[in-house]
Design goal:
Strand content: 15-25%
Order of helices and strands: HEHEHEHEHEHEHHEEEHEH
Structural class: alpha/beta
Largest sheet: 8 strands, parallel, barrel
Helix content: 25-40%
Oligomer: single chain
Number of strands: 10
Length: 271
Amino acid sequence: MSTPIVLSAAASSRPAAGKPSPIKLGLASYTFRNFSRAQLIGFMQQLGVSELNAKDVKDHLPTDPKLESQAMADYTAAGIKLHAAGAIYFLKDNDDDIRAQFEYCKRAGVAIIVAGDPTPASLPRVEKFVKQYDIRIAIHNHGPEDKLWQSPLDILKLINNMDPRIGCCIDVGHTERAGTDVVEAIHAVGPRLFNLHMKDLADLHVKESQVAVGEGKMPVRAIFEALIANRYAGFVDLEYEIHADDPMPGVTSSFSYLRGVLAGMGYAKGE
């Protein structure tokens, strides 16, 4: 009598058939901010996710060049690719500080900097380095608490006439809490959307109501449809910010749901 094969929740949720997905799923390393790089890599392997938006938290992507080099070697050995870094904060409007952030990302080989709260006054200086390094900037909106960038539409107003490599990272939860329909925001930002942070909320107006993706009111399928309609080429990065000491149950459930939505749309998988 043969022994039945038992698949993990993450593996069993992956659709076995379908056309290749235009939606690419990734992970924001902030999700595992209380865990080391080695643990992060292990979790990603369990999840079957190989694309990472890394942040300088714990030892995920240190700013020290030697430590950063070791981190990149560890990711490469594990088959993990970095498509973005951040959120990175541009705290000073001066060349040395901004150059240091671009050098950090250049060493990591990432094409996108997810930027938290660069001031409007600093944007021309940031634009200079975007042109010099040919690294895109995706400004992250942070909802109604943010003094600068509550909604992606706030960002769009100030960057529309800037270099096309300056764009947005839409955080779907913060966008909805700012009173902006996230699907409309995706269409409005269009080709300036470089990264998207996925989360779910039981109440789209309450930050503290975050739940695993699929358990709240976030219109995930409509978000995917909008991204596909706009031919979005970036990643949908899960950013699960709750249960920091034990995130894997919610993370596993979230990826299962995201993959299930893609399967329901007739796609094979999202990474």
